[in-house]
Write a structure and sequence with these properties.
The complex is a heterotrimer of chains A (242), B (110) and C (113).
Chain A (H helix, E strand, L loop, with lengths): L6 E9 L4 E9 L6 H12 L18 E4 L2 E4 L5 H4 L4 E5 L6 E3 L2 E2 L2 H9 L22 H7 L9 H5 L1 H5 L6 H11 L7 H7 L14 H5 L6 H20 L1
Parallel strand pairs in A: 1-5
Antiparallel strand pairs in A: 1-2, 3-4, 3-5, 6-7
Helix pairs in contact in A: 3-7, 7-10
Chain B lengths: L3 H29 L5 H8 L3 H30 L3 H28 L1
Chain C lengths: L8 H32 L1 H10 L3 H29 L6 H23 L1
Helix pairs in contact in C: 1-2, 1-3, 3-4
The chains are: A alpha+beta (242), B mainly alpha (110), C mainly alpha (113).
């Protein structure tokens, strides 16, 4: 096949936490090829020292996200044809996170903020009590359902300019998690969540730029979740000041 | 750099100003035809309690609203924080209020 | 150069809101200062108004009116987004805010010239 003879021009970020630069590679083009395939081919055939992160290869684990031509993407589910511009692809580490080496970023700040937003389960019952019955059609349950497919890939976090400008800002993923738990009948941490998202890095710093929702690979809507938190905190603000 | 309190202040002043801005736009469109003059403006506004309340509340709201907005931009673009950021926020609010109050007094009270 | 990840309508709505807001905040001290001349120095104020009759100044005023209307209607969209039940029509509403603002400032310009 003729397309197998063609080559892609690929620039890959090489460096560490301090410095780095883009390095050019030529990679054989195929009809069916993901960005992660391209990165793996470079590591297996051209430079075994290239560092990157992936696990499941099927869009479940959320570990392979990178900047592809300046846009954050899950690389295992991004076809080369979607991202290719003039036969060129630039592949860099996720924005807004410290680089460990090459394409691997340190995800600690991302997950630390997940915890800081009270994005953890606050049990409402003990194991000795019967399991709570949940009505799947309940309005709050439907709202919670909207956020549960998040795979923690950090694409939204990398896309957000508010994260870039405000180091304290918890970011779209953590805030969406907080909103999901806020609507979960089995979670007993409602006030703790509202307090956690009301500080100097809280939901009120969001400018509704919508890059989170625009780039979320699972078509989730963190911007709407953050709006939900703003509404809930505003309501609680009026209640408390009475 | 916004807590829930600053956010609420920002939004409450915004809601307050929406009808004031509409009124201001209407007055501008009405008054601009044929050019402006000091006498024309003063003839409309001087000694009027209604215009004093209209522009007075406008100035109070915009001083708060603009100061909080500038605070956010200064933090996100210039990276300033802490006491310096507080100082700049208050300076912006007070300066806008002082200049605005002076203008409102000039066109409505004197 | 434009960062690629910013290339979508709601990011443009954001930057317009920010630029209009900062511009208005910087314009206000000038606005207040000239109005206060009504008391301290009415003749200078009238001299200033004669200056505003210049076409280029009229156009700048049109720009200011546009920024004011845009900041208000864009801000109303944001508050509706935050406080009313969620709507997926944010892009249309942002475009609508820009269109209405242009219309209002256009009427101002036509009345001004």
């Amino acid at each position: 096949m003729s397309s197998d003879l063609a080559e892609l021009e690929v620039s890959v970020w090489r460096g560490d936490a301090v410095s780095g630069r883009y390095e050019d590679f030529r990679v054989p083009a195929h009809d069916n090829q993901t960005i992660l395939d391209v990165v793996s081919w470079i590591q297996q055939h051209l430079d075994p020292t290239l560092s990157y992160r992936y696990a499941c290869r099927v869009g479940m684990c959320g570990s392979c996200a990178m900047m592809v031509n300046g846009v954050p993407r899950w690389t295992c589910r991004t076809h080369v044809k979607v991202a290719l511009q003039d036969n060129r692809i630039s592949i860099g580490p996720l924005r807004n996170l410290p680089v460990i080496k090459d394409l691997a970023t340190d995800m600690d700040p991302f997950f630390d903020k997940w915890v800081a937003a009270e994005g953890r389960h606050h049990p409402s019952r003990t194991r000795d009590e019967p399991i709570e019955q949940i009505d799947p059609e309940d309005a709050a349950r439907l709202e919670a359902n909207k956020g549960i497919e998040c795979i923690n890939c950090s694409v939204c976090y990398a896309a957000c300019d508010t994260v870039a400008g405000n180091a304290d800002y918890l970011g779209p993923a953590a805030l969406q998690r907080a909103w999901t738990l806020y609507n979960d009948a089995k979670d007993d941490g409602r006030q703790a969540i509202l307090d956690a998202v009301s500080g100097t890095g809280g939901c009120h710093n969001c400018h509704s730029q919508g890059s989170c929702s625009h780039y979320c690979p699972n078509d989730l809507n963190p911007m709407a979740a953050i709006a939900g938190l703003k509404r809930a905190t505003a309501r609680s603000f009026f209640k408390r000041s009475k | 750099m916004l807590t829930v309190r600053l956010y609420m202040l920002q939004r409450i002043t915004a809601v307050l100003m929406a009808p004031l801005v509409l009124g201001h736009l209407a007055v501008m469109i009405y008054a601009v035809q044929g050019g402006l003059s000091a006498a024309e403006i003063l003839g409309r506004t001087q000694g009027s309690v209604a215009w004093f309340l209209f522009y007075g509340s406008f100035v109070v709201a915009v001083s708060i609203h603009a100061a909080i907005g500038l605070r956010v931009v200064i933090h996100e673009v210039l990276g300033l924080k802490g006491m310096l950021l507080e100082l700049l926020t208050w300076t912006a609010a007070l300066a806008l209020f002082a200049l605005g109050a002076r203008a409102v007094i000039a066109v409505t009270l004197s | 150069m434009m960062r690629p990840h910013r290339n979508h309508p709601l990011w443009y709505a954001f930057i317009l809101h920010r630029v209009s807001g900062v511009s208005l905040a910087l314009f206000l001290p000038v606005h207040f200062y000239t109005l206060a001349l009504a008391l301290t120095d009415p003749e200078r104020l009238d001299g200033f108004f004669r200056w505003t009759e210049l076409a280029v100044v009229k156009f700048a005023e049109f720009g200011l009116v546009f920024l004011l209307a845009l900041h208000m209607f864009g801000g109303l969209r944001l508050m509706a987004l935050e406080w009313l039940p969620w709507s997926d029509r944010q892009k249309s509403m942002a475009a609508g805010a820009a269109a209405v603002s242009f219309l209002i400032s256009g009427v101002f310009l036509l009345r001004a010239i």
